[in-house]
Amino acid sequence: MTILFDSFDVSWWPYLFVLLGASLPTNMWRWLGVGFAGRLRDDSEWILLARAIANALVAGVITRLILFPTGALTFIPVWMRLVAVAVAVVFYFGLMRNLFIGVLLGSLTLVGLTFLFGVPMT
Amino acid sequence: MISNNMTDAPSAAADEEGRSGWYWYRRGMRNLLSTPAIVLYFSYLGFGSFTYESGVDVYLSMFMTIVTWAIPSNVILIGGILSGSSLLAIFVAVALASVRMMPMVVSIVPELRGEGIATWKLIVLAHFTAITSWVFGMKELPVLPPHGRAPFFGGFAVSLAVLSVGIVALGHGVAGAVPPEIAAALFLMTPLYFILTLPSAARLLSDKLALVFGFILGPLFALVVPEMGLVLTGLVGGLGAYGIGYYWRKHA
Fold first, then answer.
1. pLDDT tens per residue, range A94-114
2. How many CB atoms neighbour CB A36 within 10 A?
3. ipTM
4. Which sequence spans correspond to the domains of chain A?
5. Residue B47: which of B155, B178, B204, B212 has the closest Cα?
6. CA B204 from chain center: how many Å?
7. From what superkingdom does this record's organism come (chain B) (predicted)?
8. Per residue in B169-204, pLDDT tens?
9. Which residue from B21, B75, B29 is spatially nearest to B48, judged by alpha carbons?
10. Do B230 and A29 touch (CB under 8 A)?
11. A9 CA: distance to closest CA in chain B (Å)
12. Which residues in chain B are contacts of A33 at CB distance < 8 A?
């Protein structure tokens, strides 16, 4: 039998669904991480390997958020998203190491481009 | 962001362990208005309006924020609910997208541990470890005295989550009022922020290479093997970067 979000018409079911469908599959990795870390020495090669894997995964998540996004970003053409990212990167690493302005500038570039080219947002 | 307070530090050092823990907790909390925190609030503002557009009520949105504490997991959950997927299918998709949590926790625990921290505390802190707090922790923790690290991280990560729950409610409430162009820009803030900060948290050669490999392999594997893309990005990119870093350490 397949269990769905609307399988049970009781007020607590959506909350249990969230616990089983999102909280558990996310947290089980965190618990495993605590378990593994407890067995390793702090300067262990395994820790260095875990750091490398974590960095690669996080970087992978970031580019996916830009290239294959969800929500409102999907309506905006890829090149506009990339230009916005490029503006932030060039500003931050080339001109001025101010994170807040860098992020704000990238976001404003995106808003500017969508209005300038009249991107349909539906 | 916030410099060491000259008048607080000596008196706190003279206090017993319990008091100084609270001192470090407050020191962590002071970073709630730092740039990474503010950028995360903007992302959660965007997430809140996304839950509204998806027809998820405000209480459930707040609940999923705190019990999962990972935006990608919750976005997958909502996507799954909207497409009528089964609980099992959503569980598998979220599990695959969350593998990153394990190496993130494994690598931050040595930075937190100090002298013999209780396992339950590590489990609580691990729950509040997500990309923002991980990058922040890997960057800030190494320079702190060992006994202050766990409370400092807790002060930042736990209060960040609690505050974000409120931000989600706010985003849910103002959803209709924000034009979609602005909502899109809010969603872009998180990846923008990480692209700018990840390089400074990557100390070792293997960390830096892993970032480069991850940036390239992430979208590539997403196209070639959509289901397993993220896991493979971590394994291939991470192993490759670690291997080159290992060779460099031994032979250079």
1. 998 888 899 899 999 999 999
2. 17
3. 0.78
4. 12-68, 69-122
5. B178
6. 20
7. Bacteria
8. 998 988 777 788 888 888 788 788 878 888 877 778
9. B75
10. no
11. 15
12. 101-106, 109, 126
